[in-house]
Design brief:
By secondary structure, this protein is an alpha/beta fold. It contains 18 helices and 16 strands. The strands form 4 sheets. Strands 1, 2, 3, 4, 6, 7, 8, 9 and 10 form a 9-stranded mixed β-sheet that branches. Strands 13-14-15 form a 3-stranded antiparallel β-sheet.
């Protein structure tokens, strides 16, 4: 089976790799795609792993990052549709296939072999979707734009729901059907080009022609589609695939599709931590390449002693001054807090290699929890990277960017140095919450919160609380 991935972006050049792709930084964007590739290669060694991209991306991945794809293919699309639709490069890639394949989106991470039943299936998708909200909005846009809909697409409509197949995974062994599907995509867009080109929400048609059309055609031809997730997902309520929950549960991971969570801070940290842990040499290489090509980043890496640290002392006060008409007193308060925060960052930064090694060891302990290993002999402690600041209620309101909220007087700011990103993470807590944390970690049997199935609801809540604190670096372990 050929496992294929695609990335096409003609606006990216080697002189400008500062493209976030929906993530919080360009570095995470590149690490994410690399991590997806490396996991596929590690767990599917017997399959052919192939990448399709435009010339710049192929050169970056093959010659600079040295990602271990078995084959690289350059695709250059000059079609107008490539400017219209973000998923058009995937359509071009599907079109080029002469052998059975499964296309894997490059924001999918798999810590296991792709199941044999998927590789043997005539047709494949990630999961069946039934949506009564967003897809109804798409349907209403179709009506507004007066789009001509083939009869087989109408089979997607089921009462208050619209059915679709998620194309995070797509492909199979039935190449004749897939070629017919691709031909229908071209016909659908050609027949509606005028309406789509003038639509103010043209991007919505990506899901129509890639996912709805796929579903409709499988119904028209009575085709069976094998999905990774066996049950249908209703209204995008993906309990077993909810990305922040998967990350913070510290449970075993087999499959994670980032999708709409690219701007989630914990998701971004997770990608960096996992690349650093699972593929340290590739992690170092990618960061080194990006650094030398001028990619903006504060991510730290062991081989560098010369990363430029550019900390704007008054960055937050400037932003707040633009958002609100701050009084001189408010502005002074914010500036003083920024000054103390940057002094704290500089203090930690002087010994960043020590803290980075602590972070790496911390992440390894988290991985032990994910793998179900017990932590007997380890004790929970407050992180040495934690600083607690007592601040006024007015400053809390300003830090929350919400002058209308009235906060109580017993809040504190937890400032955690994150050595991987070389920044201070801030959490605003009631002081009672921190006191609760201290009382919990002083218990003798804290390992009960990290292993086994819990029936007691209180223990479950405490477990979730501790795991989040552990991931955020507020607490850690020591022998």
């Amino acid at each position: 089976m050929n496992l294929i991935q695609t990335y096409f972006n003609k606006n990216i050049t080697l002189d400008n790799l500062n493209y976030k792709g929906g993530y919080l930084s360009p570095i995470i964007n590149w690490l994410s795609m690399a991590y997806s590739c490396l996991l596929l290669k590690r767990f599917n060694p017997g399959d052919n792993l192939i990448f399709y991209g435009n010339e710049t991306i192929v050169h970056l991945f093959e010659n600079l990052f040295n990602l271990p794809y078995d084959e690289y293919h350059i695709i250059e699309s000059k079609e107008e549709y490539s400017d219209w639709f973000y998923c058009w490069p995937k359509i071009i890639t599907y079109r080029d296939q002469k052998d059975p394949f499964i296309h894997v989106d490059n924001d999918i991470f798999m810590w296991d072999q792709l199941p044999r039943e998927l590789k043997d299936a005539p047709l494949v998708a990630q999961h069946l979707e039934r949506d009564s909200k967003f897809y109804i909005d798409v349907y209403n846009q179709i009506i507004k734009d007066k789009i001509n809909i083939p009869d087989y697409i109408k089979t997607c409509y089921e009462g208050i729901f619209v059915n679709s197949y998620n194309a995070g995974l797509l492909g199979g062994n039935d190449l004749s059907f897939i070629q017919e599907y691709l031909s229908e995509i071209k016909s659908f867009i050609d027949n509606n080009a005028l309406q789509i080109s003038s639509s103010e929400r043209r991007f919505l048609y990506n899901v129509v022609f890639e996912q709805w059309l796929y579903y409709g055609m499988t119904k028209k031809h009575n085709k069976i589609v094998k999905t990774y997730y066996s049950r249908p997902i209703t209204d995008f309520d993906m309990k077993e695939a909810h990305v922040p929950f998967q990350i913070l549960s510290l449970g075993e991971l087999k499959y994670l599709h980032v999708m709409e969570y690219k701007d989630n801070i914990r998701c971004n940290r997770f990608i960096a931590y996992k690349m650093q842990e699972d593929f340290p040499h590739m992690y170092e290489r990618i960061l080194s390449v990006c650094h030398h090509l001028g990619v903006k980043s504060t991510i730290n890496f062991l081989s560098s002693d010369s990363i430029d640290q550019k900390n704007e002392v008054f960055s937050r006060s400037k932003k707040l001054k633009e958002l609100f008409n701050l009084s001189d007193e408010n502005l002074y308060e914010i500036k003083q807090f920024e000054i103390s925060t940057n002094k704290l960052l500089n203090k930690y930064n002087q010994h960043r290699h020590i803290y980075l090694n602590l972070q790496i060891e911390h992440n390894r302990l988290i991985e032990r929890i994910r793998q179900g290993n017990n932590l007997k002999g380890f004790k929970l402690i407050i992180s040495p990277c934690l600083n607690i600041s007592k601040v006024t209620p007015s400053l809390i309101n300003l830090l929350l960017y919400n002058k209308k909220t009235t906060m109580s007087t017993d809040n504190i700011v937890l400032q955690v140095y994150n050595p991987t990103f070389n920044k201070i993470d801030e959490f605003i807590w009631p002081i009672q919450k921190f006191q609760l944390l201290e009382s919990i970690i002083q218990q003798e049997n804290t390992d009960q919160f990290f292993v086994g199935n819990r029936i007691d609801n209180n223990i479950t809540k405490i477990s979730a609380f501790l795991k989040q604190c552990l991931f955020d670096g507020i607490i850690t372990f020591k022998v």
